[in-house]
């Protein structure tokens, strides 16, 4: 059976993205359910259906790469690897092939299959303000899927939140701020977090990576 974010095995086996998701899941953070197909696994459609029914149960999925060259502590690799979103069960196997073909020069890479969250609001949060290096949370967000914000398909709203103050913003719950602070402590460094809020109001952490370029102005991480 594949890893379903409950056992933290070697980073080089899981790939950085899946390693980070597993770390968050074990810490009790709200990440979408799913599993990791390891680099040496080429599952049949029957196996994929079985794993889907075991770990996800219903709905469409996100299919993401988990290369050791992305989402690391020294290099993010953001935007260089394919992600397939809102994929129905019958097309998961094809999506896996597409994601792996794009990274063909590396050989086979781990692939993450996760429940796709239909977002009401989503965005990116930084646990350090990338504009000035201050120790504040900076967010860019908008209505709809997080991919629209990340890919620049919409003009996002922005918000700066002090870590030691309660967030009273009408669209951003304070619980999200608490999760960002928890993630920075978990990873031991400033982080870049993709998040969303579904139509029931539940917050989901979609992925988290260390911030690899930190503005030098007035910031030192203890």
Automatic annotation (TrEMBL):
Keyword tags: ATP-binding, Kinase, Magnesium, Metal-binding, Nucleotide-binding, Transferase
Function: Catalyzes the phosphorylation of pyruvate to phosphoenolpyruvate.
Cofactor annotation: Mg(2+)
EC number from the UniProt entry: 2.7.9.2
Reaction catalyzed: pyruvate + ATP + H2O = phosphoenolpyruvate + AMP + phosphate + 2 H(+)
Enzyme class, first EC level, given as a word: transferase
The organism's place on the tree of life at top rank: Bacteria
Name used for this protein in its record: Phosphoenolpyruvate synthase
Lineage, opening ranks: Bacteria, Pseudomonadati, Pseudomonadota, Gammaproteobacteria, Enterobacterales
SUPFAM superfamilies attached to this UniProt entry: Glutathione synthetase ATP-binding domain-like
GO MF, one annotated term: metal ion binding
The UniProt record lists the keyword Protein transport: no
Annotated pathway: Carbohydrate biosynthesis; gluconeogenesis
Pyruvate phosphate dikinase AMP/ATP-binding domain span: 58-165, 168-216
Family: Belongs to the PEP-utilizing enzyme family.
Coiled-coil intervals: none
UniProt cross-references to InterPro entries, sorted A to Z: ATP_grasp_subdomain_1, PEP_synth, PPDK_AMP/ATP-bd
An annotated GO BP: gluconeogenesis
């Amino acid at each position: 059976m594949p890893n379903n974010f409950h056992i933290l095995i070697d980073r080089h086996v899981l790939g950085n993205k899946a390693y980070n998701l597993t770390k968050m899941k074990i810490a009790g953070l709200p990440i979408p359910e799913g599993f990791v197909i390891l680099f040496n696994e080429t599952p049949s459609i029957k196996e994929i259906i079985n794993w889907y029914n075991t770990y996800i149960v219903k709905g469409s999925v996100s299919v993401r790469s988990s290369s050791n060259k992305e989402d690391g502590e020294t290099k993010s690799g953001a935007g260089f690897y394919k992600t397939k979103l809102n994929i129905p069960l019958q097309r998961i196997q094809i999506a896996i092939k597409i994601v792996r073909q794009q990274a063909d020069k590396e050989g086979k890479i781990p692939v993450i299959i996760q429940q796709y969250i239909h977002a009401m609001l989503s965005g990116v949060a930084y646990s350090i303000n990338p504009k000035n290096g201050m120790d504040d949370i900076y967010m860019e967000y908008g209505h709809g899927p997080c991919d629209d914000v990340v890919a620049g398909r919409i003009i996002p709203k922005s918000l700066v939140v002090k870590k030691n103050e309660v967030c009273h913003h009408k669209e951003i719950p304070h619980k999200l701020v608490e999760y960002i602070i928890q993630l920075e402590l978990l990873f031991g460094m400033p982080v870049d977090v993709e998040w969303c809020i579904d139509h029931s109001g539940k917050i989901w952490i979609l992925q988290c990576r260390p911030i690899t370029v930190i503005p030098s102005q007035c910031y030192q991480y203890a």
